[in-house]
UniProtKB/TrEMBL annotation:
<dbReference type="GO" id="GO:0005829">
    <property type="term" value="C:cytosol"/>
</dbReference>
<dbReference type="InterPro" id="IPR014718">
    <property type="entry name" value="GH-type_carb-bd"/>
</dbReference>
<protein>
    <submittedName>
        <fullName>Glycosyl hydrolase</fullName>
    </submittedName>
</protein>
<keyword id="KW-0378">Hydrolase</keyword>
<dbReference type="GO" id="GO:0030246">
    <property type="term" value="F:carbohydrate binding"/>
</dbReference>
<feature type="domain" description="Glycosyl hydrolase family 92 N-terminal">
    <location>
        <begin position="35"/>
        <end position="275"/>
    </location>
</feature>
<dbReference type="Pfam" id="PF17678">
    <property type="entry name" value="Glyco_hydro_92N"/>
</dbReference>
<dbReference type="InterPro" id="IPR012939">
    <property type="entry name" value="Glyco_hydro_92"/>
</dbReference>
<feature type="domain" description="Glycosyl hydrolase family 92">
    <location>
        <begin position="281"/>
        <end position="745"/>
    </location>
</feature>
<dbReference type="InterPro" id="IPR005887">
    <property type="entry name" value="GH92_a_mannosidase_put"/>
</dbReference>
<dbReference type="GO" id="GO:0000224">
    <property type="term" value="F:peptide-N4-(N-acetyl-beta-glucosaminyl)asparagine amidase activity"/>
</dbReference>
<dbReference type="GO" id="GO:0005634">
    <property type="term" value="C:nucleus"/>
</dbReference>
<dbReference type="GO" id="GO:0005975">
    <property type="term" value="P:carbohydrate metabolic process"/>
</dbReference>
<dbReference type="InterPro" id="IPR050883">
    <property type="entry name" value="PNGase"/>
</dbReference>
<dbReference type="InterPro" id="IPR008928">
    <property type="entry name" value="6-hairpin_glycosidase_sf"/>
</dbReference>
<dbReference type="Pfam" id="PF07971">
    <property type="entry name" value="Glyco_hydro_92"/>
</dbReference>
<dbReference type="GO" id="GO:0006516">
    <property type="term" value="P:glycoprotein catabolic process"/>
</dbReference>
Length: 765
């Protein structure tokens, strides 16, 4: 698939290169899109979305919806199976259960006595795509090409010339199903569909549920065709049983509703706009962004232009190896498809603040994605932070996850706190109201969110906030009254550390002291007697009377919603207090034991590069003198798990969290969220430049070695001055730009002899 894909795409990109050369300025006048495989991470559990996303954070994500037995198609796409529609809304890289897959069209040929039957088609060949462009060839000979803008999509259909009755079916009940049986499947509940004499159609659909357990939400649409249909019909029915199918122009109800447009031409173009606000707004979005006569290639070129200037040109490398370029730019694409910028499309309140949704989830992205989001897309990042705070203003709590304009679900802590802290300590100000930002964080830290009675975790809210807060406030730890008690406690500590950081910056002395103290509460779960594989001291469940509950540190029960630990075991969570590393180190038994504890994550087969709780663990060697090279070795091991192919991600993309992780490995740094600290690893390329805006750059060079065999750091200079610490702070490299000059070699050298990284909550140790 990669081969077919790259040959086609390269010739295609040349045809639009002229357009790009004229429209881009300065050092952005390069086309990086030929290095992008939009199919990266779309198979093998990556769940990435390969369809058209016309700009970073575009609301419209236009692509195929595929059926393959009972496999969930999280982003709509699966490499194998039949296509049953092409819809305008998707998430990218998520797990849990599919969300969206709404506002679709499906082309068919031949007589269509019943549009409610299965109209899906196998593909004649693998789908193809690149930035701004997607193509499917169906077994029945229909070819579908797609391009899009932020709020609208363009469909170009080529029907086989021998076919009779080329038709396009718009089924409002179309929504991605889930077969997992976990209660997270979406439902369609209401549709409204109308066609007009000029051949266009308008309407809306109502859906609920999905992983975030959302109540009913509406989406409005407006579709136009370049050709006048020869016949237009509406239909209504249940299952595959038709109740009506005729030329009535308006139809609505709780049953399946929609329309069938039949054409005489073998080439049909359709334009469809969407909106959360109204059908009028959907038409307006369409006519503003894709007016009649819009040239298909022109839209493709615009999408490429946007991705090149706004994202890809921000990071440039020198490398002879095209796999490096492919991995870099394909991963950058994966990072910026969600959240969606829905500014102007918020159906729930009006406000001068920006509005972003499709946060899926901060539990995944706070670890290293948001830190890179800030650097690559500073304007959008500031808007995103403002939007988190505005959601608190109007909904009462910031989201940990949010889709269809509804908060949910919360897997651990209230991790928006970490994201705000990270932005605050790195000097993100602009139009952010930080007093409100801190108040939003205090809500997380002090206000028990109303229980949403989630069957998977009935004890407390999974919608937002910190459900286990009653225990956290009363005991300084979470008792088994609460599900996920231990993993939530570790995250609440980090969240409270975030409050400390912002309170401290705002000069709120009392609050700073309170939350610094609370950031140490993870320690209250530490049972020094819990032992496993030559190690003792692990975070374990604890009763209200203070006694520890026996716990095998290798076990996490089911690791799921109802268990004491979520998605990982005590070994991993016992290394997760990244604001209090020296306490972890001391309680684990000192340097040597600490190093062995990290090693054991691999020896015992615990480490999972595809799961976020262990993202930072491989680099904690940097907190031990003389051990930075061990972090480098781990970094290289992790690098080998990635490539630009469809199975190129080691786990769910998770809204780009997985891609951000590999990008940090290439850069040779790893961020610690909520602090200005970056742990130093080993950069991959002779030269990598990050364009920081306003003419500032971070340039990272390596000499003397290479990425694959001679990757140990021998020495480092920062702005030509020798650097001997295993870490560096945000201000030193990102605030004004800098040069980092690494010398690499094939054997470890004890170069990092300076101060160890900070551990801000360990002060009393
Ligand atoms: C039309 O032509 C296509 C492509 O040549 C072929 O696959 C298909 O079977 C033909 N369909 C009919 C109805 O003849
Ligand atoms: C390019 O990099 C890839 C991935 O690291 C590696 O497998 C491949 O051997 C490299 N190719 C060359 C020509 O060095
Ligand atoms: C977000 O969307 C709004 C409305 O379309 C737009 O004005 C703003 O520039 C967008 N933000 C970014 C970073 O593109
Ligand atoms: C710190 O927190 C503990 C509970 O973990 C509490 O007993 C103690 O009073 C707190 N100290 C301060 C100064 O707030
Ligand atoms: C706490 O409760 C447990 C379980 O009921 C009991 O076995 C233990 O002895 C109690 N410990 C204390 C210190 O009261």
């Amino acid at each position: 698939m990669m081969k077919i894909f790259s040959v086609k795409v390269r010739s295609f990109s040349e045809t639009i290169f002229c357009f790009l050369a004229f429209s881009l300025v300065g050092y952005a006048n390069l086309d990086f899109t030929r290095h992008v495989n939009v199919f990266q991470g779309t198979a093998g559990g990556g769940n990435r979305f390969p369809g058209v996303v016309a700009a970073p954070f575009a609301m419209v994500k236009l692509g195929p919806d595929v059926k393959s037995g009972t496999a969930d198609a999280y982003s709509g796409y699966l490499p194998n199976g039949n296509v049953w529609g092409y819809s305008l809304m998707h998430e990218s890289g998520t797990g849990g259960a599919p969300k969206y897959g709404v506002v679709s069209q499906m082309p068919v040929i031949g007589d269509l006595p019943n549009p409610l039957v299965d109209l899906s088609q196998p593909r004649a060949s693998p789908d193809e795509g690149n930035i701004g462009y997607y193509k499917s060839s169906l077994a029945n000979g229909i070819v579908i090409e797609l391009t899009a803008t932020e709020h609208a999509g363009l469909y170009k259909y080529s029907f086989p010339s021998n076919s009779s009755g080329p038709s396009i079916v718009v089924d409002v009940s179309h929504v991605l199903p889930s077969f997992r049986g976990l209660g997270w499947e979406q439902h369609y509940s209401y549709g409204d569909f109308n066609f007009f004499e000029d051949g266009h159609y308008e309407g809306s659909g109502t859906y609920d549920n999905g992983w975030n357990l959302s109540p009913n939400w509406n989406i409005y649409f407006c579709g136009r065709f370049t050709q006048q249909p020869v016949t237009t019909k509406t239909f209504k029915g249940s299952g595959t049983t038709l109740a009506s199918y005729d030329t009535t122009s308006s139809i609505s109800g709780n049953e399946r509703v929609g329309g069938v447009f039949t054409f005489k031409d073998s080439s049909v173009i359709s334009r469809v706009g969407i909106s959360y606000i109204s059908t009028e707004k959907a038409c307006q979005n369409l006519d503003n962004e894709i007016p009649e006569q819009t040239d298909f290639q022109n839209l493709v070129g615009k999408a490429r232009n946007k991705w090149n200037t706004e994202v890809f040109s921000k990071i440039q490398i020198s490398s002879e190896n095209s796999s490096d370029h492919d991995l870099l730019y394909s991963s950058l694409l994966g990072m910026f498809m969600i959240p969606s910028n829905l500014t102007g499309e918020n159906p729930d309140w009006s406000s001068p603040e920006p509005y972003y949704s499709d946060i899926f989830t901060l539990w995944d992205t706070h670890r290293c994605h948001t830190a890179l989001f800030q650097i690559v897309q500073p304007e959008a990042y500031e808007e995103f932070i403002r939007s988190l705070i505005d959601i608190w203003r109007f909904d009462g709590f910031m989201p940990d996850a949010r889709s269809s304009n509804y908060n949910g679900r919360v897997q651990g802590g209230s991790n928006a706190d970490n994201v705000l802290a990270d932005a605050y300590v790195k000097g993100v100000r602009g139009s952010i109201n930080w007093d409100d930002g801190f108040s939003a964080m205090v809500t997380d830290a002090e206000v028990v969110p109303p229980n949403n009675h989630d069957p998977k975790a009935p004890d407390s809210s999974t919608k937002e906030g910190r459900g286990a807060l009653p225990d956290w406030l009363k005991y300084g730890y979470n008792t088994p009254t609460f599900t996920r008690a231990v993993s939530r406690a570790v995250e609440y500590s980090t969240n409270d550390f975030g409050l400390y950081q912002v309170a401290n910056g705002l000069g709120k002395i009392d609050e700073a002291e309170r939350y610094l103290n609370r950031s140490r509460n993870w320690r209250n779960h530490w049972n020094p007697a819990a032992s496993s594989n030559g190690h003792s001291g692990f975070v374990v469940p604890r009763r209200a009377n203070g006694s520890f509950i026996p716990q095998d540190p290798l076990s996490c029960g089911g690791c799921y919603w109802g268990d004491a630990y979520y998605e990982d075991n005590p070994w991993v969570y016992s290394l997760n207090a990244l604001h209090d590393v020296y306490t972890m180190k001391k309680w684990i038994g000192g340097d040597e034991k600490f190093v062995d504890r990290i090693d054991k994550l691999w020896e015992l087969g615990i480490f999972n590069a595809g799961n976020e709780p262990s993202f930072a663990s491989p680099y904690l060697y940097n907190f031990v003198k003389g051990k930075q090279h061990r972090s480098v070795e781990r970094s290289r091991q992790i690098g080998k798990l990635y490539n630009a192919g469809e199975r190129g991600l080691p786990g769910n993309s998770d809204a780009g969290a997985m891609e951000a992780n590999i990008l940090w490995q290439m850069i040779g740094l790893y961020p610690i969220t909520g602090q200005t600290t970056f742990l130093i690893l080993s950069p991959w390329f002779p030269e990598l430049t990050i364009n920081l805006g306003n003419g500032k750059r971070l340039t990272i060079t390596t000499t003397g070695g290479n990425k694959d065999s001679a990757f140990y750091v021998q020495s480092l200079k920062v702005n030509d001055e020798p650097w001997t610490k295993s870490w560096i702070s945000f201000e030193e490299i990102f605030s004004n730009g800098a040069t980092l000059s690494f010398v690499l070699g094939s054997d470890p050298v004890d170069w990092a002899t300076g101060d160890l990284p900070p551990s801000p909550s360990s002060g009393d140790q």
